[in-house]
Amino acid sequence: MGYLPKRLVNSNLSTFGGEFVDSEGKLYEGPYHELFSGKTYTGTTPNSPNKKLIIPNPNLQIPNSQQVNTRQNNEYNSLNPVNPDLYRYGADPETYFPTPTGQDYRRGTITRYFAKRRNAQPLEIREISETAFNSISSQDGRYNYAIWEVISLFWKISGPIRDSKDQYGVLKAGITDTNERLREQANQQMRGIKGYLSDLIQFAVKADLELVSNKYTAGGEFKVQLDNSNYSGYYHIMADGTIMDGATHSQTQDRILLADNVVVQNQVNTLVKDALANL
Fold this sequence. Notes:
- This protein has 279 residues and is of the alpha+beta class.
- Helix content is 21%, strand content 31%.
- It folds into 3 domains: 6-88, no CATH class; 102-196, no CATH class; 210-277, no CATH class.
- The protein has a 4-stranded antiparallel barrel. A 4-stranded antiparallel barrel has the order 10-11-12-13.
């Protein structure tokens, strides 16, 4: 037999007897696997040596079906008539809503996980937990890997809104631009997720959030962006890293300050990261 993708095989199943019989009508007990075509064989996988075809025991009394006879199920089975039973193995993954922590904001990114139902019309994509993602990826049987495909991606949640360069020419990756690039990459693997991820600043720290307040400089650390003059006095820092005059944002005269050197800029970056960690 040629190679069969894992998604077309339900492997590592087991029966304690009574469910299947072999070609001679003898009851079979032990490991078995089921192909997408609906055929069942002995052995854990299609590569198992000396595998034999087994069939459901015709004398077995089957209780009420686990699949509810609804219009939706009947329509789905009509689209997949080969073996609807295969689609009942495992649960559907539950929808999950991430809750970023302070450490996530300090790090600047989170990992998000998504599942897409195969052949579903209309398109069905849902965000899922890491646990569900790992289960479907490993095909451990807890969730129905036969009808769900999964993907993970990084998602930027802190920093400037758009890509920009500081006064030293160092590129600072922006939230929307970074997430747009990540979304495009993900859409190559899971068609349709681009439409699901329409909010590029979802979970992000808003740029107009006052993050660090009541800081003071005696001078020699910052310059006023407008005229390049030396600045001394109180200042505060916004969530996107913008440094402004005034102890708080309500006291600012809308003057943007620039770090006078790399050492000061690194100190500002540390203040921002520490503040994000405490959100």
